[in-house]
Design a protein that fits this description.
By secondary structure, this protein is mostly beta strands. It is built from 2 helices and 6 strands. InterPro entries: LexA/Signal_pep-like_sf, Peptidase_S24_S26A/B/C.
Length: 112
């Protein structure tokens, strides 16, 4: 008999530094992240060049690819003075069908 699979054990390395957020844009379709996907965001990881990150830009959270060499996010059309990396996206989860449990995140809320 196989052991039960735990998504927490599989996807979350550091629970106290992990956020879960829902994607609200199609800007990252080219790398396999789609609108309504769930992101596992690890605040303990140091962002590196070409990492997918979540950042606060002008008071809004955005998901983008980090260009560490140019110190910018690749999906933003211009530079922003107020940019703070929240964490590195370690995983994404695609849900097939709507769950009432996800309605909280669809409203733009984040889980800590």
């Amino acid at each position: 008999m196989q052991n039960a699979l735990s998504l927490d054990d599989l996807l979350i390395d550091n629970p106290s530094s992990t956020l879960i957020g829902m994607v609200d844009t199609d800007d990252l379709n080219s790398i396999g992240i789609y609108k309504d996907d769930l992101l596992i965001i690890n605040r303990a990881l140091k962002p590196r060049h070409n990492d997918v990150v979540v950042a606060e830009v002008d008071g809004q959270w955005v998901c983008s690819i980090l260009d560490a060499h140019q110190q910018r996010l690749t999906t933003l059309k211009h530079d922003h003075e107020e940019l703070m990396i929240i964490g590195v996206v370690s995983s994404s989860i695609r849900c097939h069908g709507k769950s009432p449990d996800l309605s909280y995140y669809e409203a733009g809320n984040q889980m800590e």
